[in-house]
Write a structure and sequence with these properties.
The chain is about 25% helix and about 25% strand. The chain is α/β, with parallel strands linked by helices. The chain folds into two domains: about 190 residues, FAD/NAD(P)-binding domain (3-Layer(bba) Sandwich); about 120 residues, FAD/NAD(P)-binding domain. The strands form six sheets. A seven-stranded mixed sheet has the order 5-4-3-2-1-6-17, with helices on one face. It has a four-stranded parallel sheet with strand order 10-9-8-14, with helices on one face. Strands 11-12-13 form a three-stranded antiparallel sheet. The longest helix is centred in the C-terminal third of the chain and has 20 residues.
Amino acid sequence: MQHRIIVLGAGYTGASAAGRLAKRLRREDVAITLVNAEPDFVERIRNHQLATGQDLRRRPLSEIFAGTGVALRIAKVTGVDADRKTVAITGANGAEELEYDTLVYALGSGWNSQGVPGTAEHAYQIAGRTGALRLRERLAGLDAGQAVVVVGGGLTGVEASTEIVEARPDLDVALAVSGSLGDWLSPKGREHVRKVFGKLGITAYEHTTISGVEPDHVTTADGKVIPAAVTVWTAGFAVHPIAKATSLEVSGTGQIVVDPTMRSVSHPDVYAVGDAAMAKGAGDKPLRMSCASGIPTASLAADAIAARLTGRKVPDKTIGYFNQCVSLGRKEGLIQYVTADDRAKQAVLTGRLAAAYKEVICKGAAWSVANPTLGMPTRRHRVTHEQTTV
């Protein structure tokens, strides 16, 4: 009987894990099923480009996984029973239940309203393709001089605000951050972001907490009203809620707690990757929610599953960082070099070269997903163990 592996979610992490498993294991020994709600792979790290009117290449999952041995199911995951080892889905055939021997949970994350009044009703988000397209339509309908306020000073907020003003220099764009602009960067990195913001005419509201969102303005915690025909909310991510509703051990954020091989500490036949996992990297620090964390965790999980099933040595790796890549529009960028545990170093790369560097990174990530059986030697081994509990 084939060992049944189900991968939930076909973002960067889920798609990468499924493709890597297909390269590691013999088709006659395993049945790999990839479940995703959308028929296309979405380049999430380019959603700020999609929102500003740029057209991105369509990448159908059916084409990506054709001939790989991975079975694709376009369906919404509605539940996981980690004790019965089943997944509930709803798709073209209605409600179904799938059984698994090994589960890879890669449902990722979405936007986080932080419970701020009016955010869910009036704010726009770019955590998903649907949200990015909705924002795209709204931005296209704005008249010159109207105000756009982006809330959140992390990578997504900085990239969104610069992309919007570059595409629509006739708009009044501002970024509201709870701390200092770019406070997670080195002094050189912060200086460059400020320089680009000044050149593009973006207003930075620093040390500003947004306490309410209305259709035409936002309100700060100290009572200030900031005009906003459009509010773009990028203040953090929230993981998919399904894991928290299961018997899996999860963190306070709803992430599945995993060991160094991305295996659930409570259910050894479940692996979690990407934003869905509470995993630790270099310096025993939790990995941040990002593509930079997600793809390495997917690779590690796939290799660990393959090793356990084939009786080979389980990988012993610690995930560390090298840099943070920030696009500042299409012509500017910032590469912030970091320590393995993600602390900013003094060294940075800026300007057009940094923008080109970031583009290479984005294309490389998409290429690795779109070519799941290329890019690394094929070493398919025979399954010798029925379960991954060994």
